UniProtKB/TrEMBL annotation:
Organism: Camponotus floridanus (Florida carpenter ant)
GO biological process: GPI anchor biosynthetic process
Keyword Lyase annotated: no
UniProt membrane topology term: Multi-pass membrane protein
The entry's keywords: Endoplasmic reticulum, GPI-anchor biosynthesis, Membrane, Transferase, Transmembrane, Transmembrane helix
Family the entry assigns: Belongs to the PIGG/PIGN/PIGO family. PIGG subfamily.
Lineage: Eukaryota, Metazoa, Ecdysozoa, Arthropoda, Hexapoda
Segments crossing the lipid bilayer: 7-27
Pfam families: Phosphodiest
The protein's name: GPI ethanolamine phosphate transferase 2
Localization (cell): Endoplasmic reticulum membrane
Pathway: Glycolipid biosynthesis; glycosylphosphatidylinositol-anchor biosynthesis
Primary location group: endoplasmic reticulum
InterPro entries: Alkaline_phosphatase_core_sf, Phosphodiest/P_Trfase, PIG-G_N, PIGG/GPI7
Amino acid sequence: MPVNNILLFYVTLIAPISIVLFLYGFFPIAHHGDTIASQSDVPNYIGNVSINKHALYKPIITRLIIMVIDGIRWDFVAGPMGNITMPVTSKLLANSSGCLLQVKLQSPTVTMPRIKAMMTGTVPNFVDIVLNFGSKPLHSDNFLLQAKKYGHKLVFYGDDTWLSLFPHMFERHDGTTSFFVTDFTEVDNNVTRHLQHELNYNDWTMMILHYLGLDHIGHVEGPFGASIKPKLQEMDEIINQIAQRVQYWNTNGIPALFIICGDHGMKDSGGHGGSTLQETTVPFIAIGGTRCSHSKDGESIEIEQIDITATLSSAFGLPIPSANLGSSFLDSIYHLDDTKRLFFLYYNSRQVLDRFQKLVYRKSQIEYIYRKYLDAVNLHVTWLKTNERSNRMFETIVSSYNAILVEMKDVLISSIVEYDFRPIVLAVLFQCQVSKING
């Protein structure tokens, strides 16, 4: 065979291989798995101690409203601007009727992957930017799937991305499109027009609202445009309407929780999709809880967006979705007795450890985390068996579980969002060879 033919064959073979290697390294694959969690995954034992999981892991709430304000930035609520544009919300936070937490999220800061993060507890990546245009149904385990599976009735109004991701999930729904970015008004009115009669119905247990108007204004005018203030005031009035009903339910024996959050923020130029602080920091407001924790310096507690999945699951007493990497912060918005709080931490740690063992390939890393996990569990068992349960011992167990959850989460997030440079370097070397041969 002539040398030129051999070189041609080599180039034809190696060129597509190098492209595949580059894409594999540049776009890390998100591992969701196909396992669907069930009640059998909620543990009956802690170590060798039998526990009553039905008493410890039962619903804290029977109704949930999630209001997503697309593109809302942290400083729209927490900064001086919030007192002016959202006075009702600010008052609810000031008198402890509401609890404000700061949500950190990863890029890409576009809607579809952020919805996935909130509902699955795992981190989408840049491949999802492409998939954001024409979202396909989500088949992996998620909070809405668990809610539907265990008899909850869901209704939805707003961004039709939810309907693309979760078809056949909602008893009633009305989708709006984000395509017409110059529409600041009708896109939100089409959500709000359903609100009053849904608040009067009692046949649902979960309602999701996703408002697009603020995001549209950001794209056209930026975060400091003239239309931002009246839009935030409009959102504030809607929050007031829902908050009053939630407070009425709670007073009359219907435990309810109202969540207001952003899917992502917006840059000072008005867009989003990147990793600036303004895009990756959004507010999370909980109304209807029984407490509000703060950090040691009095600031709002910082959480990850993927923590929302485990938190809402534990509030409803639902199995935590199998792909979840997040840690529940339910104890930041509800008073939990010590036994229940430790059980939540144990179950959450055990579930994330299962993902960690499946997704991390370094044996030494797995063994290190597993030893720390066993230490926490053994201390937990000792606490359960003793009659003298000191507060110091309790706090040590809490800290141990939380440290393990944070460590596992950090490793797993890094493995999903960071580039794999080994195949990228190999792809570049192959391409250099191809260029040299062609030259």
